[in-house]
Amino acid sequence: MTTAGPPGLIVAAPASASGKTVVTLGLIRHFVRTGARVAAAKAGPDYIDPRFHAAASGRPCYNLDSWAMRAATLMHVRDRLGADVDLVICEGVMGLFDGVGPGAGSTADLAASTGWPVILVVDVRGQGASAAALVRGFASHRSDVTLAGVVFNRTGSDRHAAILEAATVDAVPSVARLGCIPRMADLALPSRHLGLVQAGERADLDATLDRAAVAVARYLDIGAIRRIAGPGAAVADEGRWSPSVPPLGQRIAFADDAAFAFSYPLVLEAWRDAGAEVVPFSPLAGEGPDAGADAVYLPGGYPELYAGRIAGARDFLDGLADAAGRGAVVYGECGGYMVLGRCLIDEHGVAHAMAGLLALETSFAEPRLHLGYRRARVSADGPLGEAGVTYRAHEFHYARTLEEGPGAPLFECADAGGAERGPAGLVDGRVMGSFIHLIDREDA
Length: 444
Description:
Layout: E1 2-12, H1 20-33, E2 38-43, H2 48-57, E3 62-64, H3 71-82, E4 87-91, H4 107-114, E5 118-123, H5 130-140, E6 147-155, H6 158-171, E7 176-182, E8 191-192, E9 195-196, H7 205-219, H8 222-228, E10 230-236, E11 251-255, H9 265-273, E12 277-281, E13 295-298, H10 307-311, H11 314-325, E14 329-333, H12 335-340, E15 343-345, E16 351-353, E17 360-363, E18 370-378, E19 390-397, E20 400-404, E21 411-415, E22 420-424, E23 426-428, E24 431-434, E25 437-441
């Protein structure tokens, strides 16, 4: 049986930092303000942009990852996105054709599999008619990807915009010219070392989203954009979907605040759908995990920015120790893994005592980038499955590991190309963690 997907479009770009996030947020917010039911999606493993999308749409934003997700998972997310909405707006990742290799994990791959047309956001600072050659190249590069429209971003003047429009009319008549957005300092989104400053940390978030909505309504052809959104491709039913990550317990205490913000809605919702109770708590607000929980989940985030507060959060740290003492599963990913260790050294070289449940010490005093997709094989039977179960996952952090172990590794890892990277993470009884963010189980 085949089913058609919901109507949607993908906002992409030739490269990162072209302005596609602001355009995406502006479109989502504008359509919602005009009464449309809009769902948001984000290509790739990003945690930060989806929080902005959720704020703009009023609905959870789901990741769609053509490398890391099974076909059944992609279909499940597509159907969840399409429930009771008029339109899905998906933001791409990096440049349109950028992934882990040809045909692997790019926004273009996602466009081909979903059937959604693409709007290309081009940062035209420093170029004029040459942009037409860029658009023509992107339009013709893959026959299975429909480049339906182009937005010229950060134009310098009306004359600049007119040159761009005239050049693309002649060079790429099949691609709709959807408008030109001038350089506007008040649309810039501040960043830090892992991406944008988080949505939850922005006191001016609503005002920022409204400014973006006003800008796209003023400078873009909104009617044409709405008409571009096409029905998703009809795809074969992949059968019954199983959760990406099995529930860690029946009552799962889940850390959720600015220090622990990197969690996927799909994972949490799948746990609830499977019958687990997910109970959020905020370590930064002085809260500890629910005393009746049989599992504690510490997702990634920015513990390095709040290390002093975490070190002083006795209810939190004592609650973790109590959970471990009563045999609850305690699982940390990336930032959560660092907090389970003995010590976290911040960027100023100050050491902060952490939970001390794993033999781990980490530092941000001399940051080093670790980035890439991972295949993570479970090393021994446990809450994440039997030994040998493999997950598609992602690693992205700047922490250096000063000490790790003794202890058994949680995973054996390979990169996206299959090259072995060795053991990752630690397990001590039912306390475990790693720098790896799990996305989905791999097909057997």
